[in-house]
Amino acid sequence: MFIKKNINHSKYxxxxxxxxxxxxSTIIDRIWWNFYSNTPSWDQADYLNSALDHARxxxxxxxxxxxxxxxxxxxxxxIPPLASIINGAVIAFAGDSPHQAAWSLSFWNGFLLFNMASxxxxxxxxxxxxxxxxxxxxxxxxxxLRTDYVLELPLISAITFYLFHLGxxxxxxxxxxxxxxxxxxxxCSISLLIKQSSLLVIIPSLLFIFIISFKRDIKFRLxxxxxxxxxxxxxxxxxxxxxxxxxxxxxxxxxxxxxxEGDPSILGFKSIFWYFPYLDNQFGSIIFFFGFSGxxxxxxxxxxxxxxxxxxxxxxxxxxxxxxWIYINLITCWTFTTFIPNKDERYIACTIPLIILxxxxxxxxxxxWLDTYFKFNPYGLFLIPFLSFLFxxxxxxxxxxxxxxxxxxxxxxxxxxxxxxxxxDKKETVIVVPxxxxxxxxxxxxxxxxxxxxxxxxxxxxxxxxxxxxxxxxNWIILAEGDQGSVSSNSLALDEAVRDSSLFTxxxxxxxxxxxxxxxxxxxxxxxxxxxxxxxxxxxxKGMEQGPLGIKLIFDEIEIEHMLDGHFQYQSIVRxxxxxxISSDPENVESLWSLSLLxxxxxxxxEADIYLRNLEILLxxxxxxxxxxxxxxxxxxxxxxxxxxxxxxxxxxxxxxxxSLGDTSALFRGAFWRLxxxxxxxxxxxxxxxxxLKQIEK
Length: 698
Description:
By secondary structure, the protein is mainly alpha-helical. The chain has helices at residues 2-35, 42-57, 69-74, 82-94, 98-101, 103-123, 126-138, 140-146, 152-170, 178-192, 199-212, 218-261, 269-272, 279-283, 285-304, 320-338, 352-374, 383-390, 393-400, 410-420, 441-449, 467-473, 489-500, 533-542, 548-564, 569-584, 589-601, 605-618, 624-635, 639-652, 656-668, 675-697; strands at 428-432, 455-459, 476-482, 504-511, 516-523. It is 66% helix and 5% strand. It has a five-stranded mixed β-sheet, sandwiched between helices. Helix 1 (2-35) runs antiparallel to helix 6, helix 11 packs across helix 16 (320-338) and helix 26 (569-584) runs antiparallel to helix 27.
């Protein structure tokens, strides 16, 4: 009884120690956020906007909320929604200014530290667990994530939770229980629903489980099948709703960004060793030295006392599977990340918890040797990570940046100026020409929507075609004097056109840290803005009956309009007009085209199919309603219906495009015998579309 009481007492002390470390790290983080934080720039402001979107949609911020589940899924078209939902809940509780929203990072940090402590207990006990937590709290890289509003901290917190519970479940000596599987399934689901980067860990780990399942019993295989199926079901609603935007966005982020930023070829020597030089900065020189040297000396000691029947895992732990699980996941995740074309220091984040476990192991080896040979108190080694943090570049962030009270953030004053000129709830769009960390469309939107605001920032100027619409229809414009940031020469032409026109007046000039200034321009009272795009939209929608030619014209204009009117206010006007006409005349072709296009733009393919079906009946000699029906049914994962529509339409109106759509749909539903036909019809369809689009160029 006395022994049991001591054991429980020791556990309480351990978890209280972890709580103390989390509170201490949170205090340091809050010092940063309250006195030294910067204006959120591109990605940071984008993630904050996403959190605000979800908070409003779920009525966390006392807004009206969304009308249905699809409206919620609309808020996360490229990145899964879970982190934004949780961050939005924290914003609703703590406030929506950047330093208040950052409390969500403290939550994720606590989640990470307690998961690292659990890993430590599982692997080697409380002493090892404390090293894991202290190294995590003192890692410069993790401190950077705690003081920068990006998704990597939620990601690695969930990944650590996932690997720990999946490892326990798959450990033959203690695993195989249904409750362990339930927790591992939940952990995998939340990882998937935070960011696609989790796949760099989840895919190889599940592949490893699949391989070892052949040596396990039928119960283990059944559990593994349940885990895979349940996680597919967990991610399916979001992916089903947003798969087109997700795949296209991922392609741009991974491949196009790599090409634009000049990242090395994935098979090149520079690419393979890209992340190794960052390890020292990510953990601090002192932590990395002690951790790595401890592992190295342990390995050399093992080689010296080599036994023929020994296994590599015995260097560190008699229970070989625990460490095998760590080695396999570290190697595979590092390899997968290395071969991703787009490179950045924070993209290796998923491997950080696993590397911390190895570094903590090196510290415990130092502790064992010092205690054995010098009778040195091993608890003194816990000071090393703190000293490493003090001498790292993390502290220099406090020394080099100015206090927030003396630092000038122009975006706040710009939004304040716009708000002072409008009623509080009025929806407004500000055109942002410069693209700098201080001023860009993302942080203008974020500050414009704080505290219930409805001001959005949108960037135009990438094309010379933007100049005329901006001069005609925009109301507020932000320009820059001096360095424009990451903008093209076309943006400079737009800048000059605004200044030279008599349509806008300069409202105010705002200073900036570097040379130059920002200026806010408003349409003059003598130049009335008459943007009646809702009328133009109806004309464009009817142009869909022309096929590719009409589609190209539609999206060229809508792309610009969605920048000029970030709130899409024209859509409700078009919808009301079209529904009113259809109520009195169900065969009004113009209104059916308008509603079809609205549903396509709103990512409602099943609803668009209803209107397109009516157009297919009313326009039997026009192949394009059938073509669009085929596409929207493919978008809603119904290739059987899509194939049937295209094949029937092709019989009525022989058309290369319909033929290719029918063949492609058939392949998706498993009719592989139509592959030969698709190889002929698809190139012909592409050729016919190219010929149609050449008419625009002429």
